[in-house]
Every structure is written in structure tokens, then in C-alpha cells.
Design brief:
Domain Bacterial transcriptional activator: 100-245
Largest sheet: 6 strands, parallel
Protein name: BTAD domain-containing putative transcriptional regulator
Shape: globular
InterPro entries: BTAD (IPR005158), NB-ARC (IPR002182), P-loop_NTPase (IPR027417), Sig_transdc_resp-reg_C-effctor (IPR016032), TPR-like_helical_dom_sf (IPR011990), TPR_rpt (IPR019734), WH-like_DNA-bd_sf (IPR036388)
Strand order of the largest sheet: 7-9-10-11-8-12
Helix content: 55-70%
CATH topology of the domain at 266-426: Rossmann fold
CATH architecture of the domain at 266-426: 3-Layer(aba) Sandwich
Radius of gyration: 37 Å
Region (Disordered): 969-993
Distance between the termini: 74 Å
Length: 993
């Protein structure tokens, strides 16, 4: 033997076997190739064995190429036989299988069984014992993937445990009852429920005349099997125990009725050509069927066209050799045109397949009894395909209880799991890479010239094998047409659903397959299904579905669950649901055809009302004291969400970002302009906090146009003001100034005092940001006068805070501190948590600049708690930068580094490039002081690039410092002896409000 995989992957060397010949991943790759010796293993399959999902390298093929090169070198270095060949996207290891311990083990067990059948029980036992010595460790120990674990589980059962069964049989035949009992007990430590082991243990106990222990063990196993829901195991052992006692007492074993010899049917459909995917599910199914299968009920469900039948038939062909009594298939047509097949028809067809139908009595009950008798001594593999529901096959199950029965349905057959112990599995759509691989295999060499088109076509099929099959046949029949043309054609709405391959009426489009499931729903559930087709996003909340359909949450919950169980909808985390892409498109078609325009308009209005009022409640919770967006009246059947605190409101907005964007686009496309500008103004500021620049800027431009289209001057001016604020938040000051001036003119023309105060406040903040301190303070004083006349505490606090920022940047630290304290007190009075945190964060900066380090630390920590609660990610990052700078100045470089790294992470998450640049600058200063000069240079390079991108003047200072960079002459190992130096660069940005 030269190779071992029953443990770490080991190679024969001069001093014995070694597993230290290569890195673990190299050993893992060789283990898979040795396991499949002589067979080509495609790169994608090899990658699935070696890496867990999501942990594979960016280019698995390149990485595997490196590993196989190293494996070849190791084999050559150790002088071992075998060739590792590369073959068209696959690897094959060519060697004598008997040079590998696992294959040698299998060969030895097979030889031992032959010796036993020839009468040499002693030689057979000796050979199996020597084979089992090879299995002394955990097989494939270098592989930790799910695929490897599934293989270990099946191999342990079918190979290792089966070998022990054979050894026990041989020992008992040789009269080695004590050794058999010892071995049975040892193996049962990990396999206590195996009924064959239990039989061998009973057999040894009875032979050793330990009858009391035998009876006690029998009752113990019997009760446990019953409690575990495995009555067939309990009954099997009971019958065996009775036979043992009869023999021991000199009586003959009980004679059980034996059916007449009948034909063994071999009636499976053709296996699918080029079947791909579902490896894990097939492994799970394999695990249920041992070499000597037990009676089982298996149910497969999944959405229409997902390949349930193909999977069931493919798997049946894999295991058919384990069913010498026959395999039989029937399509019960539970979903489809025409009548479904009844249980009575199944009985007649199966009797006919067994060639006993001529002897059948005429009554249905007699035929059932006849079939039950025939199957009492036979075990078939029975596939009952396309079942309508559990009731469709319930009466058949007692008749087939001795066989392995696989049922497929579009519904989840939970009744069979609860009432009959069925193992239920859901067949999922193919993963994208498998769908692409299938298309490439189907279409051949023409795919190599247009790989992007292949990827797009595969994506349009949504991983549904039926859709892939129709598309593949449609394209294959037109070999002269470029694949890119097909991609464009199939991109059109409804193109994939309506596609038919060929002119035969026997082929139906995918939409007709979906029709069968749709028609099987109740009228109320059909209505919900098609209305959900109007939803513009990808994942929707239960409450949104209730609003869309005009139902209570309880009513919609029941109907959604029915759609999930019908596999027309997927349940997601929490109370969320999603369509498969093609089912969403199909639901939209059904809405267009089965709902009137008026009903669709009402449903759209209810959905937009729900989002608008939910966003308004989130806005009110986050910005409790701010001026409200005026609301529209809410539809009677709409119940918007409520938020317990600021954090939950911010989380909802962030989580729903993609769907909010889709809903806003939906409102614009359907002409709901009044909803549109309100929605955008409700979510704009929180989205700014979360750093979604492009969405906010584009959204506020749309809000301006929407308000203008409905001739609402105040809404238009307010949207312009908010658009300017968005530009300013993202450091686009020229654009911000243009928006502010236009909004100011409109507010002055309409005499809106609150509008004037707000836009002047924003203009003052913008002047501060560009360094025009004196001009900023003049504008802010004017704004404060208007706010004081209005009596608006929120407006007054915001203006005072911005005056404080201007004064701080102008060097008037005492005046700035007074303004911040005044703003703080007003914000406490109105309960503005985010505003309080902002004012405290700015005060922390003032204290730091005044040299009050401990005061700054206290204030910055308090600010961070409040800003985190309010979802102010960028300002929380700013407070972290302040903490880092203070700890830097105090000489506590460990804490300084922690806070600086946190500041970088937070400002990066918020997409606030200015504050991120400041955080990188301070982190560079800390690392310089630690003696980590290369790391400091990396931080300053990042800070320079960020400042330069914003055209900030601080970029030139950092650039000059980097250009003058000279790496200090530090003896190796002496970096800690260097006195900490502070970089000449400092950059703590300005917290906004």
C-alpha cells in the first residue's frame, strides 16, 4: 500500500507512512482524487469537496493548479507510483486502486464475503479483521466540508458497519459467541439503534445461555425503538427474538405466510441525461437506504418545474440494484390538465405490473388485500409522482408499508411526516454556476465565444431545470443565431414564461405549468398571489402584503402560509417572504389579466399608503422634534408599523433600503406624485445618515420634480432645501449653494418663516464647511432671529449648534462651548437624542482643543452611546476619532489604536469620506508613535487619497509629508526603544448636526 485516506492523507515514505508531506489543503485535494481513483473529478466538484460554501478562493481553478503541482512534486520526491493527470477542466489520479487503503479495505471485505459463501468462515473472519485494522482513524480527516462529512456518514454505515455485520455473522457461525458479543457491544457504542447489531447481540446472548440478559436487552431495545418512532425495527427484533427462543426450546420457528412468486417490475422512466446538482440532497437520500433497505416513506416537494421528478428518477436509478424485487413508477397527475390518478387506479396498475391482475377479485377491497398479500414478502422501490396532497396517497401507504416509497408534490406534505413518519425534503432551484454549466453542456462549443450571454440566459431561467430545458432546446434548434440575440429576446417581460420549444402541442410553456398550481389555490389565496405580483421589490413584509390586499394581518398570515406550503412563495427571515423571480413575473401577469385596472390602482394606493405612513413613523421616532412632512390621508385597511425606539426605526430603514428604492420607483412609474415627494423627504435624512449617497441625491432630485408636477410650492422649496443638504453632507458645496439659493427665493416669495430659517441655517453650515467663518455667522444670526420669533426650539437648537461649530473653527473656543451647551439644553428639553449626542460630541472636541483630556474623554464616551442609539454612524465615528486623539496625547497608544480603527470602520460604513480621512490620519499618527512606520504610511496614503478626492486642502500637507518620507534607521528588534513621535499631520473633522 502506498496511500492512506482512512485518516489524514498519508504517503509511504522510507520510515513508514507520513502525513507531513504537504499542507492540509494539498492533502485534502489528493484525498478526493484517491477516493475517486481512475475517475475524472471536475474542478467545480473538487472545489466543493475542499472548500465550504463561501470560503473558496476567488479563482479555485488557479489555486487547485498550484496544489496539484505541489502534489506531483511530493509524489516524485517520495518515489511513489501513480499519475496525476489534467483533463479538460478536471483532474484524474491514475494508480492501482489496491495501493490505497480504502479501496484495499473494500476489496478485502468483498473477498471475505466470497470466502464465507464458499464455506471458509474462519478465513473470511480473519480477512475482515485485517481489513478493519485499516479503518483505525477518521476517514478523509483533512476534509471538513459538508460533502466530506456526508461521505463519512454514508461510508461508515455502508462500509465499516457492514463489514462488522459480516464479521459478527462469521464469528457466530464459528461458535465464537463470546467474541461476537464483545464485538457487538463495542460497535453498538456509536450505532446503538442498528437492528442487525441488536439481532447479533441477542443471538450471542442466547447461545451463551444468558437468557435473562437477552430478554432484558430485547425489552430495552424494543421500548427505545417504539419511543423513537421506529415500530418496524421493534417488530423486526421481536420476531427474531421469538424465533431464537423457539429454537432454544427445541421448537421450530414460526412459519409466516409467503406470497406466490410474481414478476419483479422494472418500470422506471429514463434517467435524465446530464443530470446536475443536488449533491447534498442525493447524499441525504442515499443515507436513508442501506445495502439492505428498510421500509421508508420519502417526500420531495418544490416549486413547479424545479426538477422533483428528475431528481426522484435519477436517484431511483442510482439505488435500483438494492431492490431486486422491483422498481415501479406512476404519475398521479395531481397538478396538470385532465383528471388525477386515483388510489384505486394505482392498485390496479401495480397489480398488473406484478402480473397478478388476472387473479384479482372484482371488488376494490379485495384488490387492496391481494396487493397487500403480494407485497408482504417483497420490497419494492415505488415512485408516486405529481401527487396533489397527502390525502391523494394516504390510503395507499398501509398497502406499501413494506416498501421504500418516494412521493413528489408541489405541496409540502407535512401530513405524511406527522402521521406516517415520512422524511420530507425540499428541492431547491439550481445554483447559478450549475445552471451555467448545464447550458454549456447542452449548447456545446458555441458558448465559449459568448460567455456573458450564457451567464445572462442561465440567470433568466432562475435555476429552474424546466425553464433551462425549454430555453436550451429553443436555442439548440437555431444553431446559426448568436447567443446574445437570445439573451436580448428572453430579457423581455414574459418571454421566458411564454417560451415553447418546438411546434408540437405536446410541449407547454412554463406559464402553463405554473397555471396548474395557481388554479389549485382557493379564490382568496389566488387573489393575494396575483396582487403580490404588483409588489415592486424582492422581499416583502407580511404587513405590507396585508396592506396591498386590504386584509388584516391575521388573514394575510394564513394565506401567505398556504402559498409557502404550495411552494409558490418562500418564507424568509422574520416575517418576510419572497417570490422566485419567474413566479413573481407570473404573478404579475395574473394580476394584469385577472384584476381590473381599478383594483390594481386601489392595491397600489394601499401599498404606497402603508410605506408612506410607516416611513413617517420612522422619521418621527428618529427625528422626534423636527418639522414633519405633511401626510396624505391613509386608506381604511392600512395599518402601518410602529417603532419602539430610535434604533429599531433606523434598523428598519437600513434593512428596507432596496425595497424602499423599488417602492419609490413604483410610485413614480404609476403617477403617484403626491406619495412620491413625501416618501423621499421622509426617508432622505436617515438614508444620508446611513451613507447612501447616490440613492439620496437621485431621490431628492425626483422629489423636487414630483412636487413641481403637482404645483406644491412649499413641497418643491422644501425638497430643494433637502437636496442642498444632501449635496452638502456629501461635500458637494457648489451644488448645495445653488439649491439653497433657489429654495430661499421660493420661501421668501411665499412668506414661509420656517422655510427661511431652515434654509439660512443650512447655508450657514455650508459657509462654515468651506471656511467662510464670518459670513457663516452673519447668516446664522439672521436664521436664529427668525427661529426665535417662531418659537421653534428644534430650529433654534440646530442653528446654535452650527454657530458653535463656526466659532470653534474660528478659534473662539469659549464662545463655541457656550453655544453647544445652549443647543444641548434645548435638545434635552425636546428629547432629541441624536441632537444631544451631536452637541456633546462637539463639546468633546472643544475640551480636547483646550487641553482638558479627561473632560474630552467623558464627553466623547457619552456622545458615542447616544449617537449609536440614534443611528448617527458617521458622527459616532467622529467621536471615536476624538477618543483616539485624546488617548494618543495621553500616551495610551493601545486604546488610541482601538478607537482609531473603530473610527475608520464606522466612517467607512457611513461612506463619509471626509471623516474617514481624518480617522485614517489619526490612526497613522498612532502607528507612527508605535514605531510601525510602514503601517503609518499606509494610513496616511489612504487619508491623502480621500482628501484629494474631496479637493480638501489637507491633502497637500499629507502629500508633502509622504514625499519627504525617510524610513528611520532602526536596528532589528529595537523598534520599542524609539521615543514616540507625533506626525506633523493632525486631522479631526467637524461634526455636523
Amino acid at each position: 500500500m502506498d496511500f492512506k485516506i482512512l485518516g489524514p492523507t498519508s504517503l509511504r515514505a522510507a520510515g513508514g507512512f507520513t502525513h507531513e508531506w504537504g499542507a492540509r489543503k494539498e492533502r485534502a485535494v489528493l484525498a478526493v482524487l484517491l477516493l475517486n481513483v481512475g475517475r475524472a473529478v471536475p474542478v467545480r466538484n473538487l472545489a466543493e469537496w475542499v472548500w465550504e460554501d463561501g470560503k473558496e478562493p476567488r479563482d479555485p481553478a488557479a489555486t487547485l493548479s498550484t496544489y496539484t503541482t505541489r502534489i506531483r512534486s511530493a509524489l516524485k520526491r517520495l518515489g511513489l507510483p501513480g499519475q496525476l493527470k489534467t483533463e479538460d477542466g478536471a483532474y484524474r489520479f491514475v494508480a492501482d486502486a489496491m495501493s490505497i487503503d480504502f479501496h484495499s479495505f473494500q476489496r478485502s471485505v468483498r473477498d471475505a464475503r466470497r470466502m464465507g459463501r464458499a464455506g471458509d468462515a474462519e478465513g473470511a473472519c480473519a480477512l475482515i479483521e485485517s481489513a478493519l485494522l485499516l479503518w483505525s482513524e477518521r476517514p478523509l480527516a483533512d476534509l471538513e466540508t459538508d460533502r466530506a462529512e456526508n461521505w463519512r456518514r454514508v461510508a461508515t454505515r455502508d462500509e465499516w458497519l457492514s463489514a462488522h455485520h459480516a464479521l459478527l455473522y462469521g464469528l457466530l457461525n464459528l461458535g465464537e459467541h463470546e467474541e461476537a458479543l464483545r464485538l457487538a457491544k463495542a460497535v453498538q457504542v456509536d450505532h446503538d439503534t442498528d437492528v442487525l447489531l441488536a439481532k447479533r447481540r441477542l443471538q450471542a446472548l442466547v447461545a451463551l445461555r444468558q437468557k435473562e440478559e437477552a430478554v432484558q436487552y430485547f425489552y430495552d431495545y424494543y421500548q427505545r425503538a417504539k419511543a423513537d418512532g421506529a415500530p418496524e425495527r421493534a417488530e423486526e427484533l421481536r420476531e427474531f427474538h421469538n424465533d431464537l427462543l423457539n429454537v432454544a426450546n427445541g421448537r421450530k420457528p414460526e412459519l409466516r405466510p409467503v406470497g406466490r412468486i410474481v414478476v419483479s417490475p422494472r418500470q422506471l422512466p429514463y434517467d435524465v441525461d446530464g443530470f446536475t446538482g443536488h449533491d447534498d440532497l442525493i447524499t441525504d437520500l442515499d443515507a436513508l437506504i442501506t445495502t439492505r433497505p428498510k421500509a421508508r416513506l420519502i417526500a420531495l416537494d418544490g416549486l413547479p418545474g424545479v426538477g422533483k421528478t428528475a431528481l426522484a428518477v435519477h436517484w431511483a436509478h442510482r439505488v435500483r440494484d438494492r431492490f431486486p424485487d422491483g422498481q415501479w413508477y406512476a404519475n398521479l397527475n395531481g397538478f396538470g390538465d385532465g383528471p388525477s390518478v386515483t388510489e384505486e387506479e394505482v392498485v390496479i396498475r401495480l397489480l398488473d405490473a406484478l402480473h397478478v391482475s388476472a387473479d384479482c377479485p372484482p371488488s376494490a377491497e379485495a384488490r387492496r388485500n391481494k396487493l397487500r398479500d403480494v407485497l408482504s414478502t417483497r420490497q419494492l422501490l415505488v415512485l408516486l409522482d405529481n401527487v396533489a396532497d397527502a390525502g391523494h396517497v394516504r390510503e395507499l401507504l398501509p398497502i406499501l408499508s413494506g416498501s421504500v416509497v418516494v412521493v413528489t408534490s408541489r405541496l409540502r406534505l407535512s401530513d405524511l411526516a406527522l402521521g406516517h413518519g415520512a422524511r420530507c425534503f425540499t428541492v431547491a432551484p439550481l445554483k447559478p454556476e450549475l445552471a451555467v454549466g448545464w447550458l454549456r453542456d447542452r449548447l456545446g462549443t458555441r458558448t465559449s465565444a459568448e460567455p456573458d450571454a450564457v451567464d445572462e440566459i442561465a440567470a433568466l431561467a432562475g435555476g429552474i431545470p424546466l425553464a433551462l430545458g425549454i430555453i436550451g432546446e429553443y436555442i439548440a434548434a437555431q444553431p446559426g443565431k448568436p447567443l446574445g440575440d437570445f439573451a436580448v429576446q428572453l430579457r423581455a417581460r414574459g418571454a421566458v414564461l411564454g417560451l415553447k420549444a418546438g411546434g408540437s402541442s405536446a410541449t407547454v410553456p412554463l406559464s402553463a405549468v405554473f397555471d396548474c398550481s395557481y388554479r389549485a389555490l382557493g379564490a382568496d389565496v389566488r387573489r393575494l398571489f396575483r396582487l403580490l405580483g404588483l409588489y415592486p421589490g424582492l422581499v416583502f413584509q407580511r404587513e405590507a402584503a396585508a396592506a396591498l390586499a386590504g386584509l388584516s394581518e391575521r388573514e394575510v398570515c394564513d394565506q401567505l402560509e398556504q402559498l409557502v406550503w404550495a411552494r409558490l412563495l418562500e418564507a424568509r427571515e422574520g416575517n418576510r417572504y419572497a417570490f422566485h423571480d419567474l413566479l413573481r413575473e407570473y404573478a404579475g401577469e395574473r394580476a394584469d389579466e385577472d384584476e381590473s385596472e381599478g383594483e390594481r390602482e386601489l392595491a397600489a394606493g394601499r401599498l404606497l399608503d402603508w410605506y408612506l405612513h410607516t416611513c413617517d413613523r420612522a422619521d418621527r421616532r428618529i427625528f422626534a422634534s423636527r418639522l414633519r412632512v405633511p401626510m396624505l390621508a391613509m386608506s381604511a385597511d392600512v395599518v402601518p408599523l410602529e417603532f419602539a425606539d430610535v434604533e429599531s426605526a433606523v434598523d428598519w430603514c437600513g434593512r428596507e433600503r432596496a425595497d424602499l428604492t423599488a417602492v419609490i420607483q413604483f410610485a413614480g412609474a404609476r403617477g403617484f406624485q403626491e406619495h412620491l415627494w413625501r416618501l423621499l423627504n421622509c426617508v432622505g435624512e436617515v438614508m444620508m445618515r446611513l451613507g447612501f449617497k447616490d440613492e439620496v441625491l437621485q431621490g431628492m432630485r425626483v422629489a423636487v420634480e414630483a412636487a413641481r408636477s403637482v404645483d406644491d410650492g412649499f413641497a418643491e422649496a422644501g425638497s430643494l432645501c433637502n437636496l442642498g443638504l444632501a449635496h452638502a453632507r456629501f461635500y458637494e458645496y457648489d451644488q448645495a449653494e445653488q439649491c439653497y439659493r433657489a429654495a430661499h427665493r421660493m420661501f421668501v416669495e411665499m412668506g414661509s418663516a420656517i422655510g427661511i430659517a431652515t434654509v439660512l441655517r443650512n447655508m450657514g453650515e455650508q459657509r462654515t464647511a468651506v471656511g467662510e467663518i464670518a459670513g457663516a455667522l452673519r447668516i446664522l444670526e439672521e436664521s436664529l432671529t427668525v427661529a426665535e420669533e417662531l418659537g421653534s426650539a428644534d430650529a433654534e437648537a440646530g442653528i446654535l449648534h452650527r454657530m458653535g461649530e463656526a466659532m470653534r473653527l474660528g478659534g473662539r473656543l469659549e464662545d463655541a462651548s457656550a453655544k453647544f451647551h445652549h443647543a444641548w439644553s434645548l435638545r434635552e428639553r425636546i428629547g432629541d437624542i441624536g441632537g444631544i449626542g451631536t452637541s456633546i460630541a462637539s463639546l468633546a472636541v472643544v475640551h480636547h482643543e483646550q487641553g482638558d483630556h479627561f473632560g474630552a474623554l467623558n464627553l466623547a464616551h457619552r456622545a458615542m452611546v447616544m449617537l449609536h442609539q440614534a443611528g448617527e454612524i458617521a458622527l459616532e465615528g467622529q467621536a471615536s476619532t476624538t477618543l483616539a486623539a485624546v488617548h494618543r496625547d495621553l500616551g495610551d497608544l493601545e486604546k488610541a489604536e482601538f478607537h482609531a480603527q473603530r473610527a475608520v470602520a464606522l466612517t467607512k460604513q457611513a461612506r463619509d469620506f471626509l471623516r474617514q480621512a481624518g480617522a485614517q490620519d489619526v490612526l497613522g499618527q498612532v502607528r507612527w508613535a508605535q514605531g510601525r512606520h510602514s503601517a503609518a504610511r499606509e494610513c496616511w496614503t489612504s487619508a491623502y487619497e480621500l482628501y484629494a478626492g474631496l479637493r480638501d486642502s489637507r491633502a497637500s500637507g499629507i502629500r508633502a509629508h509622504l514625499d519627504e518620507w525617510v524610513e528611520p534607521d532602526v536596528p532589528q528588534g529595537r523598534s520599542s526603544d524609539i521615543a514616540p513621535q507625533r506626525s506633523p499631520i493632525r486631522g479631526i473633522g467637524t461634526p455636523g448636526s
